[in-house]
Amino acid sequence: MSCLHIRGIFLTLCLASNALSSLHPECEYIFHLEKEERLCLQYIAAQGNRSTEGCRLFWDAVTCWPHAAVGEAVQRACPAVFSLFKNNTGSVSRNCTSGGWSRPFPPYHIACSVDDDIPETEQSYFATVKLIYTVGHSVSLVVLAVAVCILLFFRRLRCARNFIHIQLFITFILKAVAVFIKDATLFSSDDTNHCTLSTFACKASVVFCHYCVMSNFFWLLVEALYLNSLLLSSFYHSRRCLWGFSLLGWGVPVLFIALWIGSRMYFEDTECWDINEDSPYWWIIKGPIVVSIAVNFILLMNIIRILVQKLNPRLIHFNNSSQYRRLTKSTLLLIPLFGTHYMVFNFLPDYFNVSLRLCIELCMGSFQGLLVAILYCFLNQEVQKEVHMQWLRWQERSYGVVSPAAKCSQMDTPF
Fold first, then answer.
1. pTM of the model
2. How far apart are CA 107 and CA 377, in angstroms?
3. CA-to-CA distance for 368 and 407, rounded, in angstroms?
4. Mind listing the domains of the chain with CATH numbers?
């Protein structure tokens, strides 16, 4: 497995937030070498064939070697680009012989203290991370699809709350699909150079991934706004409100993604748009996500404050105590799902504690959709009751068995 492919796994965050990446060290290494190669080739072209004796100028993929006479030993300092990995002051030499240049001695990876291979433990770690998030997204995708079908199939479950849940489920499904598409497009082969890859397909996969991540964050924000409105008794069940939520969840990300696409096309149309080297245009995407996370966190704190007040036995009435306790349970379940951990990572450097960041954002984040589906569909009492009643009706039609529970089943539309 190549170094570029190993590090390429980092880019799949569009994940997790993808995703707020900067220039990766390996890409900086490649870009620096490409620049040095261009300068060397330009120098060789300028010198021409001024001398046919001795060893000619040449580029060995790392260093530019000057013209030398037979028997001359040439020493070159370790390229500055190696300082990206380790501080070193070593040097490499070559002898000019009658047969041409000798091999470099000592070899680059020894003289410049750079390992020529990725340690097996690191290879195993990145391979494990990729396996875990692939399994996580796959399982989440299947379970979320089943949950969406259940909420759409039963008429009694069609309400504003479940409408918002369905949209959130769909964003998790799209995010999982986007990860698979991006992996297949950018990292399908070990020989793929993601630093210089620039095709319509790879750019489209990156754009789609960014949109899915943004819409997921905004629908998490919608969930917080809706719950906050319920607690303040300020939500009115109308199509206008649902259209407003849909515009916020699906429409606002389209606006920012379109602005970002235009900025990349006209100002930074480089590589596959998945690398951002101190790009100010990256804040077109990162900014709204950071703001949504901050607003989400504030809303959750406000929800907790309201519930603490309303659940005071001295202030609430017997009739509505069960309603507020139910909302309290929902709020406590929402807290770990509203991206609270991103409050920490969004204000730290992208390469701060990479192992921990990969574990949380890629591995744990890939199972987030599964957890949402379980909590808000399969463990929902109204869903369980409706599925149970459907099972009883099926038994009645198939075997003529009428359950007492089926005779007296009455359930109000959940809202």
1. 0.71
2. 60
3. 38
4. 25-112 (4.10.1240.10), 120-315+322-396 (1.20.1070.10)
